Amino acid sequence: MKNQPDPKLIQVRKIIDTMLEASEHLRTLIKNKDLKNSIFIFGSIVQGFESIEIFLKTSKLDRGLKTRKNIEQNILYFAKELERGNITKLLEIMQFSLIPNIRKLKGNFDDDNKDRQFIIGVYLDHVNPIEVLPEARTLALIKEAKKRNAEIFFFSSNDVNLKEKQIYGMTKIDGKWQKKDFPLPDVINNVGVVTKGRQSSIERNLRKLIPFTTFAIGDKFYLVKKLVESGKYAHLLAPFKVVTDIDIVLKFLEHNDQAVFKPLRGARGENIYYLEKNGRKHTLYNHTKKKQLDIEALEKWVYDVILKRKNTYMIQKYINARTKSNEPFDIRAHVQKDGEGKWQITKIYPRIGNKKSILSNISRGGRTEDIESFFESQFDNKGSLYLKKLLQLSMDLTWHIDKLHGLALDELGLDLAIDNNGRFWLHEANIGPQTTYHEEERAVNTIGYALYLAKNKIFHTNEFEILNLPKDQFSIKTNDLDIAKLEHDITVGMLVGEEEINELTIACAYVANYENVNFFYFTPKDIDFNEGLIRGHFYIDHKWVPKIVKYPDVIYDRLRLRGVKGFDFIYQEFEGIPITNEFYGNSINKLKVYDRLKNTGVFDDIIIPYKKIERLKDIKNFIDNYNKIIIKPEVGSFANGWIYVKFLDTKRLSFFAQQPFMDCSTSQVDCQSEKIL
Q1: Largest CB tally within 10 Å, which of 34, 178, 315, 446?
Q2: Is the dihedral of CA 133, 135, 141, 145 positive or negative?
Q3: Is 664 exposed, middle or buried (0-12, 13-18, 19+ CB in 10 A)?
Q4: Mean pLDDT throughout 303-320?
Q5: Is the backbone of residue 60 left (phi > 0), alpha (psi -120 to 50) or beta?
Q6: Per the record, a Pfam family (predicted)?
């Protein structure tokens, strides 16, 4: 088994490396006098430094204390000069103070990676990647990993055992796929990404322990929105509207005779429609198929197709980019970060479609050519100038999009176009683009970048990795509570509802102190899911005092809401931490317990007669047999929701209800004879 590095140091390194990368980019922005975007990057550096301070305090690590104080002063000084717009001073601070100090801090947490074989895990949440990836890609990844002396395996969430820190993954042995136990890898190349709040509990926990290569950038509208808000490169975007009703389509067509309908989450040119207006007549194209529509038919089609699911389509001005032979084309620039974490153009090529279609996607029957030959043949004496401009734009645009996503991206597929007037346009940017014809070139950068993250312990994140929590949820960034000083080796956290802070909670605190165990209680609102910290309440001098504390070693579950809608995410968050209560729901089902005991045949003499209520007649029959019965919920405690019924005479029954009288015709209650009393 590999020598695992100290997880505490990993958490610090991941932030320092991200700060260093952002600082280098910030210096470039300052040189270019781009103060607007400098503020954005500077903010990410400040956030990173705040996270380091929080983590080191909670982990009782004091490495680089003097350097950290220097960085804090550098940040304050830089902020003042940034407000004044003093370019000279800003460059001086960056070059001679801030960047050197961040590098010095990095040295305090570096470890020796020499002669170490790194392990790369290729991951997809719901299914093993080898079942969905092209074989050429998996083989290229395996080949490149072997070249770099790295071990590689493929796995899904179903293969992960967090408690044992083991993964039962697939790997190729002697040319055949076989299952094998692996320790947690040094880095994870995740094949697919999901939007915020939808990651599985396994993935969320893996992301806390291991660097991931790939992060989401949102749908087509989200990227467009980010570019417009940033101001830069917004001129590359064709006018568009998200379709929320028929009026948006009709008004758009008043100003545009040609339009394209694109799904916000589409791929490979699927479900794209081109509409051409000619008076009250419209021609609708879906790839090479077309049909004529009058205004009534058009409106019906919009309702049936585009508005079938609201907010799933955008309408965009059509960009007329065609070859001399009237074939639609665009340029795909596949860019990746390499083994040094720097952006490179892996491959750039034209995609040329059928002249009867508006689509240039290769997956839709298009073709490709050599990029230089294409530009020479299509743009004559301007070909070399356009190509040079295209290469530079691809890199600059990539840097900008990466910056807008917290410098967390690893690869992009940029779809660019040049119209008949020589104007450049951006159709869209995709993560994880198709690379049918250059899998080996892609694998070189995929493996190289993965190893770069592993060696430097860089944990990137972006806004899609941050949960959108309620306003009253605890967040360490908005609190100035003290860090808990834990005196003992073991920490127990009692998870409770807000109404269950009582004598039992206090008694547990006393017993824990007697047993030399740290103890605190916390509610669901006391968890900072993004930072992995808790506002724990400690019993000090006969009162509960809130302090910031890491997740406990074991959880005493008094909340008892596992499996209940709206609370599952809490238990998923603590995957891998022992929890006392394994039951689903806040109580067990009594009927199921009675049925199981009865089926054993051992406890017939002591089981109190019972019957599930399926109709009102069941209650009458039970009263006839036993005179006194109790009606109570299948799930819940005996003290809540029960009704005592006593037979008085042929016309009278006596009722005593702990709660207001319930509907006894439902199947959620059961009758039991009064012997229980």
Answers
A1: 446
A2: positive
A3: middle
A4: 84
A5: left
A6: DUF8042
Asked if 353 and 436 touch (Cβ cutoff 8 Å), the reply is no
- The domain 7-107 having CATH identifier 1.25.40: the answer here is no
Q: CA 41 to CA 18: how far, in whole Å?
A: 11
In this model, does residue 496 exceed pLDDT 60?
A: yes
Q: Report the alpha-carbon distance of residue 42 to residue 77 in Å, rounded.
A: 12
Kindly state the greatest CA–CA separation across the chain: 108
Residue 521: its pLDDT value, please? 97
Q: What angle do CA 635, 637, 638 make, to 5 degrees?
A: 110
**Token representation of residue 99:** 């960047």
> What does the alpha-carbon distance between residue 353 and residue 323 come to, in Å, rounded to a whole number?
10
Helix axes 7-31, 99-107, angle to 10 degrees: 160
Q: 193 near 460, Cβ under 8 Å?
A: no
Assigned token pair, 607: 């089981």
Q: Is 254 exposed, middle or buried (0-12, 13-18, 19+ CB in 10 A)?
A: exposed
The span from the CA of 579 to the CA of 493, in Å, is 10
- Say which amino acid occupies 384: S
**Other Cβ atoms closer than 10 A to 145:** 23
Dihedrals φ, ψ of 461, to 5°? -155, 165
Q: Phi/psi at 447 (nearest 5 deg)?
A: -70, -40
* Confidence band for 480, pLDDT divided at 50, 70 and 90: confident
Query: Tokens in use for 351?
Result: 């995609």
Task: Give, in order, the Cα–Cα distances in Å from 49 to each of 15, 30, 64, 255, 508.
Answer: 8, 20, 13, 50, 37
d(CA 558, CA 169): 36
Which amino acid is present at 618? D
- Hey, which bits of 431-528 come out as E strands? 491-495, 518-522, 527-528
* Domain 221-434 bears CATH identifier 3.30.470.20: yes
What pLDDT band is residue 359 in, cutting at 50, 70 and 90?
Answer: low
User: What is the total residue count of the chain?
Assistant: 677
Evaluate whether 22 touches 407 at the Cβ level (below 8 Å). Answer: yes
Do residues 321 and 395 lie in contact, with contact meaning Cβ atoms separated by under 8 Å? no
> What is the token pair recorded at 12?
């610090």
Stated pTM of the model: 0.64
* Mean pLDDT computed over 600-612: 79
Token output for 350: 């034209």
**406 close to 459: Cβ distance less than 8 angstroms:** no
Q: What does the pLDDT average to over 281-306?
A: 85
Q: CA 82 to CA 38: how far, in whole Å?
A: 9
Q: Sign of the CA dihedral 431, 143, 7, 20?
A: negative
d(CA 21, CA 407): 8
Distance CA 94, CA 617 (A): 83
Domain range summary for the chain, segments of one domain joined by +: 7-107, 119-216, 221-434, 476-573, 590-676
> Residue 303 gets which letter from DSSP?
I
Nearest to 64 by CA among 13, 19, 6: 13
Q: 132: buried, middle or exposed (CB in 10 Å: 19+, 13-18, 0-12)?
A: exposed
Question: How many CB atoms lie under 10 A from the CB of residue 481?
Answer: 14
Phi and psi (nearest 5°) for 242?
A: -80, 130
